[in-house]
Specification:
heterodimer, B: 524 residues, mainly alpha
């Protein structure tokens, strides 16, 4: 009797699993034939997928995408190159840190002027290895129920005031915070930056893993303000229009108002060639840049484009002429300073 | 020597040795890398001491809590007349189906002003906690998410226990409680230890919940430094690997050997009557389900509803991920069982050094965070001739799942192996000379409770796995968990919630279809 039951069980198990196997193989074989371009994208499907579909429709160039977190993809690209098995043609990064890592290790090709010239000089690599796609501004998100906007500081240095003790959320381990600190080192100097970090740490900030978690915590009232990138709150307001959160932008030229660049680069040793550059140019073309502005609430970077109406316009001069290539390099030193100041992460 | 051990045991040793090599490879790679990058314990110790201590705290607290809760619940749903225990036995496994970051996000969202949990708090006249961070919430939430690791193997074991002793004891006047402590508990001890060990290792490699709750463990250090400070990252991973090997070895060596059954006649006894204690017995069930299932689910449904009703979310994009997820889960579960079974047999029946080392290697594969295992496997495949063809193919992804989740199956499979009595094996050897047919027709059927439970755990783990899937899957291969991640990452909450619900649906359907329907309570 036992074995009869088991025979039934085994049969059902076999049947179910073979159905899944066949379905899986079928699904795999149904996917498009050999693609022309392979992209490793730290920008998730929600932020670029529809665009790539349009690109293929418009140009006939087939693309395949590996999505992941920018640092992980950068590590993978590096290991692939190390083993002599480059598979990515293009790398789209969410953070200058990951891009800088690959640049430091000579994994990026030099880009042609035809692609580089589509954006202002300030938002592309000095050594012509990558070009910016979009910008994300550093802002202070605050809880509109507990904070009167007029009491917010005009400079990020104001957050070291004891009045903010226990009220600030930061993500010291996150790339965007590290980029901000690196930029501060460039514009304000090491001593000033170290003093800022110590002052911030003295105010017992609450640490989070990423920008999203900070915006959520501010909405919850767990902290009153948080240092984040601008677009997370716009995203949240789409999802939850009643969210008691708003962005506060620091004064022009303040290191707290840094524009962080998400960029694209071609991988050394890949052979995407002209097709890869065609995609880069398309991503800097009007349709894609408008998508970034209106759908993902980022700052478009291509010459002659402007952000969505809901977002305050900024000129690139606002970021204080920082050399963005410096953001990638020296991240290790930045992290050390953050840790030394007593901010974990 | 027992006749079923077979005269030639070298094939078994070879198989086990190969398996050990497979499971230890990522960990050894990590140690080697840490040394090559010049990471020194001295330099990083200052930075790693605090996180290491917090990892240890979390592992101990959560595993003990999960052991108590899981055992209690397993006993309630298998041995008592708890009302609705068939339903409980399905629902109580559910927390395993939720990726921990989804569950935690759900609970945190519940505490937003106006959220379901905040309202509940206010209902009792209390102010909802302002900060949900640190050890206490991490302990409570992760216990609620991980007790099924104990519940499943213990329930599988309880179902195959002989109840003859219970009946004799009852006739001699022992109370139900005495029977549980003095007769049942010793027999399920190895199942409890196995499950608890998994929980402890899971806590060492857990990332999703601890990062959301701001609890700074070794895993967080590994993540935060993985690109900007590689020596520290690899050193932290190496520490995890070495300490987990130590813990596993310690637990395994202090664990008394549990004899296999002496008789195969597992007869279901009368369920324990809870009587007036029924309401009390329902409390842990309700609490576990409320924290681990209802609270996260409530938030997810609220978010999904909002997105679907204003048309922001399209459902048709989920078909491919759904099929991919289901097929990977079932395939990986079957292959994991096949890989782990020889080790379980070696460990339980032969009890030789091969079996012991095998078991330790398999279990250690779970203590490293998936991102570390994935990167290690990527680098090892890329640099090994012939194997490099597997890079970014489904077989490699399955291998990664097997290495990372084999430990989850091992405990249950060992329970299965134990439930085949030695005397029965001896008779079977006389009657059926073919080893394979004996395995297929006699042993596997008898082991089925353990195999189903073990396979079920792997299935659920694969369904929600993310870092290895992102890194190692063929380019363009989408699963439900990659969909959930992509949307959560950028704050597309409605899309994330819809994908999470689809993921829960697959987990629930597969668990019910392949694991729980076979619970022998049907035969009663």
């Amino acid at each position: 009797m036992v074995s009869a039951t088991v025979a039934v069980v085994n049969r059902r198990l076999l049947l179910t699993s073979s159905v899944f196997l066949v379905a899986g193989l079928f699904g795999a074989s149904c996917s498009e034939d050999k693609p022309d371009l392979t992209i490793y994208s730290g920008r998730t499907d929600d932020l670029i997928g529809p665009l790539l579909k349009d690109f293929t429709e418009a140009t006939g160039i087939k693309v395949e995408v590996k999505y992941g977190q920018s640092p992980d993809l950068a590590l993978l690209i590096d290991e692939e190159a190390e083993a002599g098995k480059v598979s990515a043609d293009l790398f789209i990064s969410q953070s200058p840190g990951a891009m800088g890592y690959l640049e430091d290790r000579d994994r990026l090709q030099t880009m042609p002027a035809s692609a580089l010239d589509l954006v202002p000089v300030g938002v592309r690599d000095d050594d012509n290895h990558w070009v910016g796609l979009t910008g994300r501004q550093r802002v202070l998100v605050y809880n509109t129920n507990s904070i009167d906007a007029s009491t917010l500081p005009t400079s990020v240095f104001g957050l070291t005031d004891a009045a903010w003790s226990g009220k600030i959320g930061v993500a010291p381990g996150n790339g965007s915070f590290q980029d901000f600190v690196t930029a501060m080192r460039v514009t304000e100097g090491e001593a000033e930056t170290a003093a800022f970090l110590e002052g911030l740490a003295a105010n017992d900030p609450v640490t989070y893993e990423n920008n999203n978690a900070i915006v959520e915590a501010v909405a919850r009232g767990e902290v009153e303000v948080g240092l984040v990138n601008h677009y997370y709150n716009y995203r949240r307001l789409v999802e939850l229009p009643s969210s008691p959160t708003a962005n506060h932008v620091f004064d022009e030229g303040d290191p707290g108002a840094l524009l962080i660049i998400t960029g694209v680069a071609a991988i050394e040793g890949s052979n995407g060639g002209d097709k890869a550059m065609e995609l880069v140019k398309w991503l800097l073309g009007p349709q894609a840049q408008e998508y970034f502005a209106n759908e993902t609430f980022e700052y478009p970077l291509a010459n002659g484009t402007s952000p969505s109406g809901e977002i305050p316009a900024i000129g690139f001069s606002d970021v204080g002429g920082i050399d963005f290539a410096d953001l990638g390099a020296g991240v290790e030193r930045t992290r050390q300073m953050i840790t030394d100041a007593g901010l974990s992460g | 020597m027992h006749s079923w051990a077979g005269p030639r045991s070298w094939p078994r040793h070879v198989v086990v040795a190969l398996t050990v090599a497979l499971f230890l490879a990522p960990g050894l790679f990590v140690v080697w890398r840490a040394l090559r990058l010049g990471a020194s314990i001295g330099d990083t110790l200052g930075e790693l001491r605090g996180p290491a201590w917090r990892s240890a705290q979390l592992a101990v607290l959560v595993s003990v809590t999960a052991a108590l809760l899981g055992t209690l619940l397993a006993w309630l749903i298998t041995c008592t007349d708890l009302p609705g225990r068939r339903i409980w036995s399905v629902v109580l496994v559910f927390p395993l189906a939720l990726p921990s970051f989804v569950g935690t996000t759900g609970v945190l969202a519940g505490f937003t002003p106006g959220g379901v949990l905040a309202s509940l708090w206010e209902l009792f006249g209390a102010t909802p906690p302002r900060r949900i961070r640190g050890l206490l919430p991490a302990w409570l939430l992760l216990s609620a998410f991980s007790y099924p690791f104990v519940l499943l193997p213990v329930a599988a074991r309880l179902r195959t226990l002989r109840r003859a002793f219970d009946d004799s004891a009852r006739m001699l006047g022992a109370s139900s409680f005495e029977i549980f402590v003095r007769i049942t508990l010793p027999q399920v001890r190895s199942a409890i230890t196995g499950g608890t060990l998994i929980v402890a290792l899971y806590m060492l490699s857990e990332f999703g919940a601890v990062q959301l709750l701001g609890f700074d463990t070794l895993t967080r250090v590994i993540y935060a430094t993985r690109q900007v400070d590689r020596p520290t990252s690899f050193m932290a991973a190496a520490i995890l690997f070495v300490s987990s090997i130590a813990v596993v070895t310690l637990v395994r060596s202090t664990q008394g050997q549990v004899a296999t059954e002496t008789s195969a006649s597992s007869r279901a006894g009368e369920p324990v009557r809870l009587g007036r204690l029924t309401p009390v017995a329902l409390i842990p069930c309700v609490v576990a389900v409320a924290v681990g299932v209802v609270a996260p689910l409530w938030s997810l449904i609220t978010l999904a509803q909002r997105g679907v009703s204003d048309g922001r979310v399209a459902l048709d994009g989920l078909t491919d991920p759904l099929i991919n997820t289901g097929s990977m889960a079932v395939t990986s579960a079957l292959i994991t069982l096949a890989v782990v079974l020889p080790i379980a047999i070696s460990g339980v029946r032969h009890r030789d050094i091969t079996g012991r080392i095998g078991a330790i290697a398999v279990v250690a594969g779970f203590a490293l965070p998936a991102i570390v295992i994935a990167l290690a496997i990527a680098v090892l495949t890329l640099n090994t001739p012939l194997l490099d063809r597997l890079y970014q193919t489904l077989p490699l992804l399955v291998i990664a799942y097997v290495v990372h989740f084999g430990s989850q199956a091992l405990g249950c499979v060992e329970q299965g192996v134990r439930s085949v009595s030695t005397s029965l094996l001896d008779s079977a050897t006389l009657l059926e000379p073919s080893r394979w047919r004996r395995m297929l027709h006699i042993e596997l059927p008898l082991m089925r409770h353990g195999l189903f439970a073990g396979g079920g755990l792997v299935m659920l783990a694969v369904i929600k796995e993310l870092p290895a899937t992102l890194l190692l899957a063929p380019i363009g291969f989408r699963t439900l968990s990659t969909e959930v991640w992509a949307s959560f990452e950028e704050g597309f909450l409605a899309d994330a919630a819809v994908a999470s619900l689809a993921l829960l649906l697959v987990s629930g359907a597969l668990t019910w279809l392949l694991v729980l329907r076979e619970s022998p309570s049907r035969g009663r």
